[in-house]
Specification:
This protein is α/β, with parallel strands linked by helices. It is built from 7 helices and 8 strands; from the N terminus they run αβαβαβαβαβαβαββ. The chain has a 6-stranded parallel β-sheet with strand order 1-2-3-4-5-6. A two-stranded antiparallel ribbon has the order 7-8. Helix 4 (134-150) packs parallel to helix 5.
Length: 272
């Protein structure tokens, strides 16, 4: 039997594409039987990077004040972890280190949403898949995920094959993509960071958990830990498809999920 586990990926309206207060997310979690969540809104980034889709640095303090208020209100009912989802791209490392020191975070989640100047998960830019070399795009994406893990800046690597979001796939059996995935997994293993298993893809055109089964299978064989996230952008998405994600992990022999406190990972059995 599967236990309820923490949902470590959710957002607030500060990212400009989510709804709901932290109190509302917390209440939704309690109503769903959860005892722990993590608020991991899109962090600010330097030089106006992707400004329309993330909080401004001036909003960090209000985010933390709202989070601490919710922690107090739900004390004894629900643990609410302090976190950020931080975009990774080459050149952002110094700013990410600055963010890491800004607060006593429980974890930082690193995600790749851009290949160069292409916001590949933005619906307004999805048409570029029609004209690009999809195999190369996948390889470029997994290289960036590899670098994000190798940076040592993060505790969790978010939705590790997000590039499939709109259902565009590389050639079946692509050796180049398979090798890029494997190199990424080796970097994750070497640095001992967790991968996110995310139900968000089930709500997207691809209709599939992030990451796909082949990556899950290889990661479990490498003893790479996973953390669960719904990537909720509204309170009604908290805990979405948790059981489906855990069943996929268990299918390949995993029995534990990652939790975090003050950037220290602990492992929790999800089987009763």
């Amino acid at each position: 039997m599967l236990k309820k586990i923490p949902d470590y990926h959710m957002h607030t309206p500060r990212c400009n594409h989510a709804t709901g207060t932290i109190i509302e997310y917390a209440q939704a979690a309690v109503d769903a039987g959860l005892t722990e969540i993590g608020m991991s809104d899109h962090s600010p980034m330097p030089n106006g990077f992707d400004k329309a889709w993330r909080m401004d640095e001036s909003e960090l303090d209000s985010f933390l004040e709202e989070l601490e208020t919710a922690q107090t209100q739900f004390q004894g009912q629900l643990e609410i972890k302090a976190a950020l989802e931080v975009d990774y791209y080459v050149g952002a490392e110094d700013y990410i280190q600055y963010l890491a020191k800004y607060y006593d975070w429980d974890y930082l989640m690193g995600s790749v949403h851009f290949i160069g100047d292409w916001g590949f998960d933005n619906p307004d830019e999805a048409s570029r898949f029609e004209t690009c070399d999809i195999e190369k795009a996948y390889c470029d994406y997994f290289k960036l995920v590899e670098l994000s893990a190798a940076s040592g800046l993060f505790d969790i690597i978010g939705h590790p094959d997000l590039i499939k979001k709109f259902g565009y796939r590389p050639p079946q059996g692509s050796k180049a993509v398979f090798e890029a995935e494997n190199t990424m997994l080796q970097a994750v293993k070497k640095v001992d960071v967790a991968l996110e298993i995310s139900s968000a893809g089930l709500r997207k055109p691809v209709g599939e958990i992030y990451p796909h089964e082949s990556i899950v299978e290889r990661a479990v064989k490498l003893n790479i830990p996973f953390a669960y996230g719904s990537d909720a952008h509204s309170p009604n998405e908290v805990g979405h498809a948790m059981a489906e994600c855990l069943n996929l992990l268990h299918k390949y022999g995993a029995t534990q999920i990652s939790t975090f406190e003050k950037r220290q990972r602990h492992m929790l059995s999800f089987l009763s």
